[in-house]
Amino acid sequence: MALERTLSIIKPDAVAKNVIGEIYTRFERAGFKIVEAKMIQLDDELAGGFYAEHKERPFYKSLVEFMTSGPVVVSVLEGEGAVLKHRELMGATNPAEAATGTLRADYAVSIDNNAVHGSDSLESAAREIAYFFGE
Ligand code: RTP
Ligand code: MG
Questions:
Q1: Start and end of every Nucleoside diphosphate kinase-like domain (predicted)?
Q2: Is 93 near ligand 1, meaning CB less than 6 Å away?
Q3: How far is CA 37 from CA 1, 17, 21, 40, 78, in A?
């Protein structure tokens, strides 16, 4: 397996719940290295641009509202097969469908307030890392 990098966002609901440390512990226990990290307050432009692929979807407006509702922690995780491994650690988008022991099963409230983001492919990871941290 190849060494990869992926983008993680700890979303406003999880930051508000005081579980940044617990989520970072899960990343570290899973063998990821946290190679970049920052806490930021997204605005409409930054959040909207990040989720541009969903612009025409009915949930886009509420997604941007949620992502700008408080600070987020944006990190780059590095590890073997990091993209897929991180998605597995997060669990399904809808926490009601997320496997036991995944981040979303444990920390997410609903499909709209689902605690974490992770890049869905190597291509997305490269784009999203550049979006927040530059080339
Ligand atoms: P994310 O990008 O946040 O990591 O989530 P994801 O890949 O698992 O899901 P994605 O399809 O990229 O959707 C982005 C976010 O939009 C909200 N969503 N709502 N109501 C709905 O049917 C619906 N579908 C997606 C979720 O909050 C999801 O995280
Ligand atoms: Mg996605």
A1: 3-135
A2: yes
A3: 24, 19, 13, 10, 12
